[in-house]
Amino acid sequence: MKQVDVLTLSGSFGILAAHVPTLQVLKPGVVTVFAQDGTATRYFSNVDKALSQLAAAPDETANVEAQINVEASEALVKALE
User: Fold this and answer.
1) What residues does 67 pair with on adjacent strands?
2) Model pTM score
3) Per-residue pLDDT of the chain in tens (81 residues, 90 and over written 9)
4) Superfamily of domain 1-45
5) Which of 11-18's residues contact partners 24+ apart within 8 Å by CB, and which partners?
């Protein structure tokens, strides 16, 4: 890994190996990971939230809504690949 670009509540920035530690709150959106050879892989950071909503769904309606969120998040990730 050469660099990771993230979106946070205070703005977007790149994180390098051996970078000065910082604590930030991630915003939902694209996280881009750059390999040593320069290739970029993009991830959508809201997938974890969608999965946690699915696990905590109190009824069938909430479960279906959460499943739709999971599928939409996964589709976003695939679209970015």
Assistant:
1) none
2) 0.58
3) 899 998 888 888 899 888 888 888 777 778 888 999 999 988 777 766 666 777 787 888 887 887 787 777 777 767 765
4) F0F1 ATP synthase delta/epsilon subunit, N-terminal (2.60.15.10)
5) none
